Amino acid sequence: MREHEVRVRRSDEEFPREEELAWQLARVATDDVPVDDDVAGMVVNRVLDNAAVSAASLLRASVVAARAQALAHPPSRGGAGARVAGTTEDVSPEWAAWANGVAVRELDFHDTFLAAEYSHPGDNVPALVAVAQHLGVDGASLLRGIVVAYEVQVDLVRAISLHRHKIDHVAHLGPSVAAGLGAMLRLPTAVVHQAIGQALHTTTATRQSRKGAISTWKAYAPAFAGKVAIEAVDRAVRGQTSPAPIYEGEDGVVAWLLDGPDALYRVPLPEPGEPRRAILDTYTKEHSAEYQAQAVIDLARRLHREHPELRDPANVASIVLHTSHHTHVVIGSGANDPQKYDPAASRETLDHSVPYVFAVALQDGGWHHVDSYVPARAARPDTVALWRKVSTVEDPEWTERYHATDPARKAFGARVVATLTDGSTVVDEIAVADAHPLGARPFTRPQYERKLAVLAEGVLAPEEVERFTALARRLPELSAGEVRDLGIVAPPDLLSTVPLPRGLF
Fold first, then answer.
1. What whole-number distance in Å separates Cα of residue 436 and Cα of residue 126?
2. Thinking of the domain 2-281, which architecture would CATH place it in?
3. Distance CA 456, CA 460 (A)
4. Which UniProt keywords apply (predicted)?
């Protein structure tokens, strides 16, 4: 890997286009590098993972609304169209990316990468699959695009913090989707450069979507980035240009939205010809909640077994989670969001409340993507009493470990100090989630396939799960026709149980 320096440039400063970060990312996309076998295997895992969480969300209101919007947009003239998740219907590719992106993101249950910024790199996949289906792209090319999209997003996330400046993390997703599409379609570097610039320019928004009373837009934001990136690539292919230098310009993203005129970022990028392996540094979720809550859930279910007295709020004076700055201020009590302690809060808010997640997992000894969030569960009096005794504090050591570059040191856990009413304490800690590659039970192919089978229960027929799983396993060798079938199909009678809402289209 090499480090590319990014700083603000004056408009009258001589600054070659080839030194722009957007151009450097475009070069990563257009450098034709073979895909390593273990990387290809992980791409298959993540395609299975996305299908699993999409299946579980097909009847949820946000997904139904996005599906209704997509189905109002038939295939455009440039190709055959792309499949809407859960159906056999083809629509224009940007709208398929929209609907399928919402389905993937709705339950906050797919893969993650955390560093200077946070991200869900699996959000790249719906847009790439949609364009591949529309244009008749084979599995090998789709694989190449997904690998590059992961590489670009992870490299940006390693170096450039958005949340520090209250910018939503999808500002890294727009450029990564554009780069992935450029790689998949083997577009010229100059075209990909323009697409990346416009994708960034049009997907930069505030992170109020993840603050306070969190709305349904949380699921839509990444899908919007994918849709907009497809449109940016389309314009670039048609010869249209974009604001530049988009990162480094005097009125650009870094100068006014991020660290300002004196900023200096060092973005790690692969050398020419170097394999793109960033996907191997990402990790998926065993539980449907914000990633920093994954290890906390595993810690809570261990305490459920070993210290049953903690389940009863009458025995507990306080529970303090000592954790990283990010966990404390984003999903902990350091966010100063009263909604994180509100039994009537939305599901989107509760999955970003580590006090709630810890209290429920401690009492139940586990976590369920539906049952753990139902209003009756959130409002149970003994749960509310315990929940309001849980708080977080930042511990500098956990913050340092959160940002560590050494995978063996990097951690997203916490130390719990529970003080009982009799004055005794229970102290325990966990560094990484059980499903993490360094965790107690790392996810491998069987766990990904089981996740799909479990989340598809009652939604997809068993033979449909088997069909999709067999197809996904062969992703690198799929024909263009087989790529068109790379989507889950639910029984029409099931989908019709939730009527499509009417809108403008």
1. 24
2. Orthogonal Bundle (1.10)
3. 5
4. Lyase
**Cβ atoms of residues 357 and 351 within 8 Å:** yes
Dist CA 212 CA 34 (whole Å): 44
CA distances for 88 relative to 34, 83, 316, 399, 488, angstroms: 33, 6, 53, 46, 9
As a whole number of angstroms, the distance between CA 4 and CA 335 comes to 33
d(CA 279, CA 378): 35
**CA geometry: angle 131, 134, 137, nearest 5 deg:** 75
Read off the tokens for 498.
Answer: 């939730």
Indicate yes or no: pTM above 0.90: yes
First and final CA of the chain: distance in angstroms?
Answer: 47
Q: What is the pLDDT along the chain (505 residues), one digit of tens a residue?
A: 999 999 999 999 999 999 999 999 999 999 999 999 999 999 999 999 999 999 999 999 999 999 999 999 999 999 999 999 999 999 999 999 999 999 999 999 999 999 999 999 999 999 999 999 999 999 999 999 999 999 999 999 999 999 999 999 999 999 999 999 999 999 999 999 999 999 999 999 998 988 888 788 999 999 999 999 999 999 999 999 999 999 999 999 999 999 999 999 999 999 999 999 999 999 999 999 999 999 999 999 999 999 999 999 999 999 999 999 999 999 999 999 999 999 999 999 999 999 999 999 999 999 999 999 999 999 999 999 999 999 999 999 999 999 998 888 999 999 999 999 999 999 999 999 999 999 999 999 999 999 999 999 999 999 999 999 999 999 999 999 999 999 999 999 999 999 999 999 9
Closest CA to 388 of 423, 329, 338: 338
> Which residue type sits at 385?
A
Token couple for 315: 């025995």
CA distance linking residue 61 with residue 21, whole number of Å = 39
How buried is residue 504: exposed, middle or buried, by Cβ count under 10 Å (0-12/13-18/19+)? exposed
Q: Is the dihedral of CA 248, 252, 256, 258 positive or negative?
A: negative
Residue 484 structure tokens? 């068109």
**Contact at 8 Å (CB) between 465 and 452?**
yes
C-alpha distances (whole Å) from 247 to each of 166, 172, 195, 252 are: 17, 12, 13, 5
Helix-helix angle 217-237:93-105, to 10 degrees: 150
Residues 6+ apart with CB under 8 A from 19: none
State the fold for domain 292-430: 60s Ribosomal Protein L30; Chain: A; (3.30.1330)
Residue in the structure block whose two tokens are 């994708």:
199
Q: Pick from 313, 300, 324: which is nearest to 428 by CA? A: 300
What is the rounded CA–CA span in Å between residue 249 and residue 445?
44
Q: Would you kindly state where each structural domain of the chain is located, as residue ranges?
A: 2-281, 292-430
Q: Measured between alpha carbons, how far is 318 from 421 in angstroms, rounded to an integer?
A: 8
Backbone φ and ψ for 283, nearest 5 degrees, come out as -150, 150
